[in-house]
Amino acid sequence: MPIRPAYLAALSLAVLGVAGGTLSAARPDVPANFPEPPARKAIPAGNQVAVLAGGCFWGMEGVFEHVKGVQSVVSGYAGGAKADATYSKVSTETTGHAEAVRIVYDPAKVSYGTLLKIYFSIAHDPTQVNRQFPDTGPSYRSAIFPQTAEQRRIAIGYIAALDKADVFSKPIATKLEAGSFFPAEAYHQDFMRKNPNNSYTSRYDKPKIAALKKRYPALFKG
């Protein structure tokens, strides 16, 4: 099992009190009355797909697996070529990929806008540039990969609304990107479920799931 890039350095930072181990709802710059996303024009028929990048895909996967209406979550790589979509290559930070998750959801139970609300308020810190806490490099960037024109409209509108509301103390770094999604290696899938005592996810990802349950109990599933 490979060690997360920069994790050993993160442990040193944590000793100094630099690395943030309590995320999302614990951040003082995330208000309790987080703005609502733009309204959708209609409920799409059948299951839909969302692709989001926000740092280590272990935690992103773990958060969205606990959202009602989400059917499945797959960890993978988005924004680069298929031939380079391997952990060893992506970790060189030269392939153009972002660690991302592919979320299959039932739009009759949870909207794309609601997924984005969780993404911005719980799943990661959208103000960090080419990093998420201990992990640094463009593969850990904040990026949305819209799968439809309607998803693009909602994402653009929501980022604009968050900016206007001055939700965060720093500018939102999230970009809208295009590109295919490629599943990651099998050992990355359902990582938190398979490795409940992993030190990395215990420090950086379990607090996100706790925040999801506390902040949005009606959306949480065990």
Walkthrough of the structure:
Strands 7-6-1-3-2-8 form a six-stranded mixed β-sheet, with helices on one face. A two-stranded antiparallel ribbon has the order 4-5. The model is unreliable at 5-26 (pLDDT under 50). Helix 2 (57-64) packs across helix 4 (112-123). The protein has eight helices and eight strands, in the order αβαβαβαβββαββααα. A hairpin with a 2-residue loop joins strand 4 (131-132) and strand 5 (135-136). The protein starts with 6 loop residues before the first helix and ends in a 7-residue tail after the last helix. With 222 residues, the chain is α+β, with helices and mostly antiparallel strands.
Give a nutshell description of this structure.
By secondary structure, this protein is of the alpha+beta class. It has one domain (7-219): Peptide Methionine Sulfoxide Reductase, Chain A, CATH 3.30.1060. It has helices at residues 7-16, 57-64, 87-90, 112-123, 149-164, 191-194, 199-204, 206-215; strands at residues 48-54, 70-78, 98-105, 131-132, 135-136, 142-145, 175-176, 181-183.
